[in-house]
Amino acid sequence: MRIKESAKEFGKTKSLVAMAMLLALRLALGYVTNIQLTESIKIGFTIFPTTIACMMFGSVPGLVMGGAADLIGFFLKPTGPFFPGYTLDSMVAGFIYGCFFYRREKLTLWRVMAALATVTVVVNLCMTTSWISIQYGVKDFGLFFRDTGAAWESFRLKFAAIFSGRFIKNAIMYPINVLGVSLILFAVRSIPLMRPYIYGEKKSVAAGSRRVTSKEKADESRAEEVQ
Fold first, then answer.
1. How much is the pLDDT for 136?
2. Which of 186, 199, 220, 225 is spaced 20 to 30 Å from 116 by Cα?
3. For residue 127, is it within any domain?
4. Whole-angstrom Cα distance, residue 219 to residue 227?
């Protein structure tokens, strides 16, 4: 149901405008805010607009925006030969974040941890490591059709060689990303203007009325204490 609901976001003008703004922010952050800690560890901030967009609009827009961001980013500033596997990585990550964050009345630290753990294992460790192994280990994708045994052996050797390093890198980045994403998402959810995007129009009104009611009760109790 949430996947179908998220697909309907493309029919809302203000949602499309917000998606475009977050997509532009993701592209800008990808160019100017990467921090290289070591040769293999780089802190980037593109995960923040990505997870905000997935929380606001869901899996389908997250998938589309992930693919669009990767393609636009590559053609604006190529960093090597184009490989479609990395575009698929961005799409799958956006879809997963949307499944965990979209239309959730409560967002807990455990949910953030689960979402990032899923993306880390499925996308970063399995999918991306596989693409690197194919691109730099097998090199010629046609070898899978000409000599399947040799191709898979080259793939296996490259995968085994780089997996441990990528595992350590992702293990280091995981708690950093969890902390950053948690702070950003909790902050965004606390902004009243964001409630219609996060909870939906009807639920946001109900959530706001519940908060007002609680505040009124608290004010009344304080007034009674003063009297």
1. 83
2. 199
3. yes
4. 12
**Tens of pLDDT along 142-155?**
666 676 777 788 88
* Model pTM score: 0.81
Cα–Cα distance for residue pair 219/213, rounded to 1 Å: 10
Residue 195 domain-assigned?
yes
- What CATH number is given to the structural domain containing 147? 1.10.1760.20
* Token pair in block for residue 53: 């967009």
Report the distance separating Cα 107 and Cα 76, nearest Å: 35
- Smallest CA-to-CA distance from 123 within 174, 76, 78, 79 is with 174
Establish if 226 belongs to a structural domain.
no
Q: What is the reported pLDDT for 22?
A: 94
In angstroms, the CA 180 to CA 111 distance is 14
Q: Which residues pair with 43 in a beta bridge?
A: 35
Largest CA distance in the chain: 88
How many whole angstroms separate alpha carbon 114 and alpha carbon 182? 12
* 29: containing domain: 2-219
Asked, for residue 136, whether it belongs to a domain, the answer is yes
Range from 23-27, 47-51, 141-145, 206-210 carrying the lowest mean pLDDT = 206-210
